[in-house]
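This week, think about what follows.
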Amino acid sequence: MKHLKIFLLLFITAPLWLTAQKAMPKKVLMVGNSFTYFWNMPQMVNAMAAEDGYPMEVHQSTIGGATWEEHYNEKRGSQTRLLLKSKPWDYVILQDHSLSTIEAPGRFDEYGKKLAGAVVKAGAKPYLMMTWAYLSNPLMQDVISNKYNALAHELNTEAIPVGDIFMKARKLRPDLNFYFDDKHPSSIGSYLIGLIMYKALTGNSVKDVPDRLLSKDQRGEQVILSFIHHETGEFLRQLVEETEFTTKLIQE
């Protein structure tokens, strides 16, 4: 009889436990610089998750112009390594300075490995966020893509191909302005990056992501993160939707 009661208790509570486990939000930390935070890209990804009903929290550790070396050695006020220890992260996205692969490839490799090691030690999975070429020099992209992919392979992880898709969008739609200046993304560019990150992080479809993404400030007032013309949004969503991602973290 005692064993029967224990069995019944487990039978009743197990579904509740599984539901609670499933509802636990995935915790994501984005480490980088203005290439990550421009036009509130991390907040856009949070808004996409909320719109989709997917339990995910995206946080950031970003400093304008920061390199992985500065994040690792806690320079310029970086608190990345402290943040890694602050909570149990699921995934940490690492984005280096836009010129590191070209002007400092040794530093890129050394501190990419060190940061990824710190992420693993903290119990999270590291992923690399591939950057994109400058408006003035699209030939940069081959070097950037090769270095990110090679490092990801060495780390036994993956590089989310933001740069490759960004450049593809630029080639397919030269009428659209994906740049704010020579290197930073425009609001359209950041919306595209947000779509790429959300699709890569979750494996979920982005075809129904709205053109207008919303959030709230500390007072509960509505904040509009993006205004995208519907035709432009349709193109960007289709482009990302038709991209095959291997970083479908939702399946892990």
Q: What stands out?
A: The domain at 27-251 is CATH 3.40.50.1110 (Rossmann fold). Strands lie at 26-32, 56-62, 91-94, 125-129, 159-160, 212-216, 222-227. The longest helix spans residues 2-23. The radius of gyration is 20 Å.
